[in-house]
Amino acid sequence: MVAALRTARALRRPLGHVRTISSSHHAAAEKRYYPPPEPFVGGESVSIQPSPFSTFGASPDLLTHYLSLQPAPLTLRQLMAQGGKPGQALTPEQLLSSAQHTHRELPIRLARRVGGFRALPFIVGSNPFISRIARLYASSFETLVKFGPIHTQDDNSRFTAVIEDLVAAHAQNIPTLARGFQESRKYMDARQISAFLDAAIHSRIAIRMIAEQHLALSATSNDLRHLAPKTTNNIAQSPHSPDPDLPPEGTSSQVHHEYGSPTAVGIIETQLSPARMTRMCAAFVRDLCEGTLGAAPQLILEGDLDVTYTGVPVHLEYVMTELLKNSYRATTENFFKHSGSSSTADMPPVIVTIAQSANHVSLRIRDQGGGISPQNLPHVFSYAFTTAGTSAELEDAEESGGGPYAMQAVGGTGGDALAEMGKMGLASGLGTLAGLGYGLPMARIYAEYWKNGSALDLVSLYGHGCDTFVKLPRHIELSNTVI
User: Fold this and answer.
1) Last residue of one domain, picked from the residues 225, 244, 262
2) Containing structural domain, residue 145
3) What are the Histidine kinase/HSP90-like ATPase domain coordinates in residue numbering (predicted)?
4) Are residues 157 and 296 in the same domain?
5) Number of domains composing the chain
6) pLDDT tier at 87 (50, 70, 90 boundaries)?
C-alpha cells in the first residue's frame, strides 16, 4: 500500500520545467532577423510545450546543450575578412581557422532549427514531409557534433567532404516543406506558418552561407586552377539573348558553377554583374517557358549594363529567376488568350532595366502579362499563395526533385544552383512554371536580406501588366546585418 502511494505521488510530480515563450517583448522590439525570429512570435503570448522525446533522432543531451549556446554575431564584413583578398588563396593556418569556426558555428544553428521543428504542433511535426526535413536537420546536427577536432589539413579535407554531403542532402528542403505545410494548413493559421517559415528561411540562408563560404575557400586554396581567368573567346553567346549591346563575359562573369572567381572572396562576388545574371537566368526561364507553354517572349535588357556590385551571386540568381518566371508565364498566357493567333511574332517582350546610384543597384522587370487581379494582389507575398496549381502540379514539382523549384533550395550554394535546377527541371520535362506559391515571398527575403535600403516591390496595372522593382545595396561588405 505504501509503495502504491509513493508511485501515485511520483506520477503527480511535474516532468520538468516547461518553457513558455511570450511575444510581448518581441512585439515592442525593432523587427530584426538575428537571432532568426522564432515560430509563433507576434500577437498573443503562445505557450510551447515540446515533448522531451521529440528530438527527431538527435541526442536529447547534445541538443539541450547546443540550444543553450548562442550563434556568433557574424557580419558579411567579418566573413569576407576571413577569406582574404579576392582571388587569393588562404594560408594553411587561415584555412584551419575557417574550418574550426565553421565546425563550431554550424551545430549551434542546426540545433536551433531542430528546436524550431520541435515547437510545431505535434500533428504538423508528424507530417511526413515536414518530419523528413526535421530529421534531416537533426541528422546533420549529430554528424557535425560528432566530427572530431580539426587540427590538420587532412582533418579539413574530411570536414569539407562531410559539409559537401550535407549541403547536397539539404538541396530540396524548401519544396519539401512547401508540400508539408500545404497539407497542414488546417492545423496552423497563416500567421504561425509565416513566422515559422521566415525563421527557417533566414536561418537556412545563414547556415548555407557559412558552410559554402568555407567550401569555396577550401576549394580555391587547394586547387588554384579554379582561379584561371575565363577569356571571352572561349564563351559562346547565349542563343536566347537578343540584345547585341550586352557586354561580353569577362573574368567577373557569373558563368560559374565552380568556385574561385578571381574577383570573389569565397562565394561573395565583388564584381557581380546584374546584366550577366539576368541574361543567364532568362536563358533558363525561356527554355522552361517554351517547354511548358510552347512559346516564350523575348528579353530586352537596357540601362546601365556595365554596372557591378558586391553581392552573393546565388541570391540574385534566385530573385531574377523567380521574377522572370512570373513575367514569362503571364506574358505568354495573356498573349495566347487575347491574340487569337498561334504566331508569336507580335508577343510583347519582357523588359529588364538596370540603373545605379551611389549606394544602390536597381532593376525593373516590366511585362505585359495582364497584371494581377485586385483580389489577388494583397496576397502575392504570402506563403503558399499561387494563381496556378492543381494538386497534380504540386505533386509533380515535389516528386521530380523540385523541378524549377530547385532554385528555392539555395541560399549560398557557390553558384551551382542553375546547374542543378537545369538538371532537375529539364530531366522532368522542364517541370512547371508555377505551383508551390513560395516564389515571391522567398524572392523578397533574398532581395532584402542585407537591408540597407534593399527592397522588392510590385506594381500591377490590371489588364495590362506588372512592373517589379528590385533595389539592392551596392556595398554589402559595409553592412552591419548579422548573418
Assistant:
1) 225
2) 60-225
3) 311-476
4) no
5) 2
6) confident
Q: Do 469 and 331 belong to one domain?
A: yes
- Give the mean pLDDT of the chain: 75
Lowest mean pLDDT among 110-114, 246-250, 371-375: 246-250
Cα-Cα-Cα-Cα torsion 299, 300, 304, 305, nearest 10 degrees, comes to: 50
What pLDDT sits at residue 433? 52
The residue-averaged pLDDT of 172-198 equals: 86
Query: Rounded CA gap, 141 and 122, in Å?
Result: 21
- Print the SS3 string covering the chain: CHHHHHHHHHHHCCCCCCCEECCHHHHHCCCCCCCCCCCCCCCCCEECCCCCCCCCCCCHHHHHHHHCCCCCCCEHHHHHHHHCCCCCCCCHHHHHHHHHHHHHHHHHHHHHHHHHHHCCCHHHHCCHHHHHHHHHHHHHHHHHHCCCCCCCHHHHHHHHHHHHHHHHHCCCHHHHHHHHHHHCHHHCCHHHHHHHHHHHHHHHHHHHHHHHHHHHHHHHHHCHHHHCCCCHHHCCCCCCCCCCCCCCCCCCCCCCCCCCCCCEECCEEEEECHHHHHHHHHHHHHHHHHHHHCCCCCEEEEECCCCCEEECHHHHHHHHHHHHHHHHHHHHHHHHHHHCCCCCCCCCCEEEEEEECCCEEEEEEEECCCCCCCCCHHHCCCCCCCCCCCHHHHHHHHHCCCHHHHHHHCCCCCCCHHHHHHHHHHHCCCCCCCCCCCHHHHHHHHHCCCCCCCEEEEEEECCCEEEEEEEEECEHHHCCCEC
Q: What confidence tier does 74 reach under pLDDT thresholds 50, 70, 90?
A: confident
| 419: its cell numbers | 546547374
User: Taking 50 as the threshold, does the pLDDT of residue 22 lie above it?
Assistant: no
Q: What is the CATH number of the domain that holds 96?
A: 1.20.140.20
What residue type is assigned to position 429 of the chain?
G
Q: What is the pLDDT of residues 225-241, one digit of tens each?
A: 333 333 333 223 333 33
Residue pLDDT, tens place only, 114-154: 999 998 998 999 999 999 999 999 999 999 999 999 999 99
Is residue 242 assigned to a domain? no
User: Average pLDDT in the 408-429 region?
Assistant: 32
**What are the pLDDT digits (tens) for 441-460?**
889 999 998 888 899 999 99
Determine the pLDDT at residue 382: 80
Q: Is residue 102 part of a domain?
A: yes
Asked, for residue 147, whether it belongs to a domain, the answer is: yes
Q: What is the tens place of the pLDDT at every residue in 308-318?
A: 999 999 999 99
296 located within any domain: yes
Kindly state whether residues 283 and 221 are assigned to the same domain. Answer: no
Residue 153 and residue 286 in one domain: no
Do 327 and 181 fall within a single domain? no
Same domain as 374, residue 432? yes
